[in-house]
Amino acid sequence: MRTPEGAVLVGYDGSGDSELALSWGDRLAADRGRPLHVMISEVDPTQILEITGDWHVEKMARLRRDAEDRLKGARSTQTSVEVVEKPPSEALITSSQHASLVVVGARGHSLVSGVVLGSVSQHVARHAFCPVVVTRPPRDPDSTRVVVGVDGSGGSKRALDFAFDHASRSGGPLTVIHGWRNLSRGTGVSAGYPLDSDADEVNMAERIVSESLAGFAERYPDVHVTEEAIPVAPHRVLADASQSASLLVVGSRGLGAFAGLLLGSVSQALLHHAECPVAVVR
């Protein structure tokens, strides 16, 4: 079975985090009018000892039944379940070429090998061909706030597109944050401009936020937006903001506005330290 074109693709392994991923995937697919495709994947069957073969087949069949049972109450009108005899990362990344979005749990378990899905979520977030949502229970389950990190790059522009769309569909407020390392103790440079003082840095940071947001108010008049420019390293300020967020959105890669950091390092750090689901957008 091939992943339906434009589907929301969910990695499922029966763990609590993958149950949360399935719930998230169903909601996102229904909101976007997309098919929901659940993928159950495992290690290469040639790696399984013959003595455990029957056990493995039964486990995979039970996982399929569990997924199908959960989909009986799905909001999505078009659902499918696929069992793939490939390692989870490989299966999800390959299938992401046809998906509009991949949803995986932050951690889980590999039923045969015992490998935690934490490594899978990081690998998929790094290499998938479409945006990836890595789910975990939020620290504040009552929050509806969406937080997005911006740095003026093309990657953060795409993150803004995703964040505004999600906030508009969910009805929650949006907080747009630009964090940077303070360089005014010496002379810094941002986007080609010399920065000689705290005031220069703050002015440039506020300019990055305002220019990044150009045109979004007209496209999403229903979204209440708060802007924040904070002289704290991006991964720290965004991790702090995630404590009271329902979703944190970052670009997969970008330019750290003042320090020249790749946003790739920020997104990877947030996959470890965020306290709500994280969307990595490319």
TrEMBL record:
Protein's organism: Nocardioides jiangsuensis
Gene3D superfamilies: HUPs (3.40.50.620)
Name of the protein in question: Universal stress protein
UspA domain boundaries: 8-136, 145-282
Superkingdom to which the source organism belongs: Bacteria
Alphabetized InterPro entries for the sequence: Rossmann-like_a/b/a_fold, Universal_stress_UspA, UspA
Family note: Belongs to the universal stress protein A family.
